[in-house]
Amino acid sequence: MVSTDDSPSPTASDSTATVVAVASDDVHRFSKPLQEEITLIAGHGVAGDAHAGPTMIRRVRYRPTETLPNLRQVHLVHHELFDEVAVDGFTVAPGQLGENVTTRGVDLLSLPRGTRIRLGTDAEVEITGLRNPCKQINGFQSGLMKRLVSRGADGQVTRLAGVMAIVLSDGVVRAGDPLSITLPEGEHEALQPV
């Protein structure tokens, strides 16, 4: 289900938008193990996940004096990406790109900043921006970074490694849960890396 201002949206393929898998890890690793369910906590992220918290906790950019808001509490990736990279010989499964939620039926990358996604019955997240993947992706599968981040002839960078979000409402999320999209009111802002 897509809620818009009276105009149809190409961001969800009717009511088939679903959660394919959920993952979390209490240790900073590239891939996250799949779970039967994850619990989202408002203003915090995924309960027990190494990336959760109200302030930024990233090994690459974290400095002990930084107290920047954590705009990367939840990482979402569309399952369709795995089919796209398979054409180039890469084998990727849910959780392996470090995402907490793998979706199907929604073009996550085309959603504007501030889009709200309800996952299951109660949990709700707000998209803050694009995942800016690091070179650890090549450690996972050589050459995958170039496939997920590319520069066009016009110099514009395309990032395909999913979106980041903050948690607005608590809730449990499981594979098979439906998801629904609510676009922000007013002029839409394209996603930028966070």
TrEMBL record:
InterPro entries tied to this protein: MoCF_Sase_C (IPR005302), MOSC_domain (IPR052716), Pyrv_Knase-like_insert_dom_sf (IPR011037)
Pfam family name, one: MOSC
Domain MOSC: 32-182
Name this polypeptide is given: MOSC domain-containing protein
Domain of life assignment: Bacteria
